[in-house]
Specification:
single chain, mainly alpha
């Protein structure tokens, strides 16, 4: 009876690790992971100082991308492309939120200059210097 239970295991071929490894170590993936890790650390430092939501979003996005690329470098199964896309969208949203106040300030200055230039034309020539 015990031979019948063990027969499938005894007849099976030994496990060959090369059947499960799809590709060797990839140095390029590791380098990309390290670049994202630097971005992660920089945003961590900024977030610790400011506690800004924008830096937190960029930190989360960079962290997910770091894990994804490092996992691919060591031939582990990495999350799919959808996770990478979501991380890039979160990172982009954080960047947009961090840059938005500066861009709005520059646009306000340009609008004020445009208003000053157009208001002088309606009232007459600009005053002489």
């Amino acid at each position: 009876m015990s031979d019948l239970l063990l027969a499938p295991f005894l007849a099976a071929d030994p496990i060959n690790i090369s059947d499960y490894v799809s590709y060797p170590f990839q140095f390029k993936q590791l380098l990309l992971g390290l670049v994202w890790a630097v971005w992660l650390v920089l945003n961590l430092w900024m977030w610790q100082k400011t506690k800004a939501q924008a830096n937190l979003l960029m930190m989360v996005g960079a962290g997910v991308l770091t894990l994804t690329y490092v996992m691919r470098a060591f031939t582990w199964d990495a999350p799919g492309t959808f996770i990478e896309l979501a991380a890039v969208v979160v990172l982009t949203a954080g960047f947009f939120l961090s840059v938005r106040p500066m861009v709005e300030a520059q646009l306000a200055k340009l609008r004020e200059k445009l208003h000053n230039v157009t208001s002088h034309k309606k009232d007459g020539p600009p005053p002489a210097k």
